[in-house]
C-alpha cells in the first residue's frame, strides 16, 4: 500500500473514533477511579474513569472536549486497556509514548490495532500532547488506585 493510501486509511480510522467514540460517557456510582486532565496548550480536556478489579482494568470510560486526535486517542486507549492488568496497561502506555516520540518500540508485545493510526502524529510535534493526554490520565488513575 502506498504511503498516501496508508495516510488516508489512518485519517479515516482517527475520524471514525472521533465521530463514533468507543466507551464515551461516565459510570454510575463510586466504584471507579476518576482522573481529570487537560492540555492547557490547546484546551483539550479529558475525564477518564477506570474500574479496576483484581489488578485488571475491568472497564474504562471517558468524556471531554478536544481535537480529533485527543478524543480518538482516548477512544482507542479505553478499548485497548480493558482486560489488561494494570502493569500491562502502563507498559502499553510506555510503548505508545515511545511510538509518539518516534522511538523504537516493541511492536510484538501488544496488538496495537487502531492505535497505530496515530503514528502520523509524530510528524506534528505540537499534537503529541493531544494524543498522549488520555494515556497520561490512565497512568495517573492506576497510580491513584494503587495508593
TrEMBL record:
Listed InterPro entries: NIF_FeS_clus_asmbl_NifU_N
GO MF annotation list: iron ion binding; iron-sulfur cluster binding
Gene3D superfamilies: 3.90.1010.10
Example of a GO biological process term: iron-sulfur cluster assembly
One Pfam match: NifU_N
Residue ranges occupied by any NIF system FeS cluster assembly NifU N-terminal domain in the UniProt entry: 10-130
Xref: NCBIfam families: SUF_scaf_2
SUPFAM superfamilies associated with the record: SufE/NifU
Family assignment from sequence similarity: Belongs to the NifU family.
Annotated protein name in UniProt: Nitrogen fixation NifU-like protein
TM spans (from-to): none
Species in which this protein is naturally found: Halalkalibacter nanhaiisediminis
Amino acid at each position: 500500500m502506498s504511503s498516501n493510501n496508508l495516510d488516508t486509511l489512518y485519517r479515516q480510522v482517527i475520524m471514525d473514533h472521533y465521530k463514533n467514540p468507543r466507551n464515551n460517557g461516565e459510570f454510575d456510582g463510586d466504584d471507579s477511579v476518576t482522573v481529570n486532565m487537560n492540555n492547557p496548550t490547546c484546551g483539550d480536556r479529558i475525564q477518564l474513569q477506570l474500574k479496576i478489579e483484581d489488578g485488571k482494568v475491568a472497564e474504562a470510560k471517558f468524556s471531554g472536549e478536544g481535537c480529533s486526535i485527543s478524543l480518538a486517542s482516548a477512544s482507542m486507549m479505553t478499548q485497548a486497556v480493558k482486560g489488561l492488568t494494570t502493569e500491562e496497561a502502563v507498559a502499553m502506555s510506555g510503548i505508545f509514548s515511545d511510538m509518539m516520540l518516534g522511538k523504537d518500540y516493541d511492536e510484538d508485545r501488544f496488538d496495537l490495532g487502531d492505535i497505530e493510526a496515530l503514528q502520523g502524529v509524530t510528524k506534528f510535534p505540537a499534537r503529541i500532547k493531544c494524543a498522549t493526554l488520555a494515556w497520561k490520565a490512565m497512568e495517573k488513575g492506576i497510580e491513584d488506585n494503587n495508593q
